Amino acid sequence: MRISHLSLAVAACGAAALAALVIYTVFMRWVVGQTPNWAEELPRLVLIWTALLGSVTCTYQRSHLNAGLLPLIVRSINVRRVINKATDIVLLVMLLVLAKAGWDLAVLTMSMTTTALKMPVGVIYLSVPVGCVGMALMQVQHVLSPGDSL
């Protein structure tokens, strides 16, 4: 799905930017002796957005960490399919609830500003509904798909 590819590309750019920011900050702190005033906030912001956007691709590929115990406990393929569909539906509902809560928090904190960057705090919290809606779209695709990876 295009959303998955787009989120992966943005997350990859975010990871590269995070590495560059950390290297620059360490250089400035230990070689030059002057730490940038944004050294704490900007890498944290990039990390949060990168992790939540990367999770969209993980949801699409079903590559999130799981124990893989279901096939050992439930032998019937049909029962496993039903359990997987039920799990997909529960995850979809929880992602939508989390997206709503994240949206509410982002709206609530949009008038506050961060200390160093002087940007709205809500921009940081906005990563939660954006990431959760992306993951929810991937879950909708899993729920509607006829075949499951067992």
Automatic annotation (TrEMBL):
Limits of the Tripartite ATP-independent periplasmic transporters DctQ component domain: 18-144
Transmembrane helix recorded as keyword: yes
Residue ranges crossing the lipid bilayer per the database entry: 82-103, 123-144
Keyword terms of this UniProt record: Cell inner membrane, Cell membrane, Membrane, Transmembrane, Transmembrane helix, Transport
GO CC, one annotated term: plasma membrane
GO biological process per UniProt: C4-dicarboxylate transport
Location of this chain's protein in the cell: Cell inner membrane
GO MF term list: transmembrane transporter activity
Main location: membrane
Purpose: Part of the tripartite ATP-independent periplasmic (TRAP) transport system.
Subunit annotation: The complex comprises the extracytoplasmic solute receptor protein and the two transmembrane proteins.
Family: Belongs to the TRAP transporter small permease family.
Descriptive protein name: TRAP transporter small permease protein
Species of origin: Vreelandella nigrificans
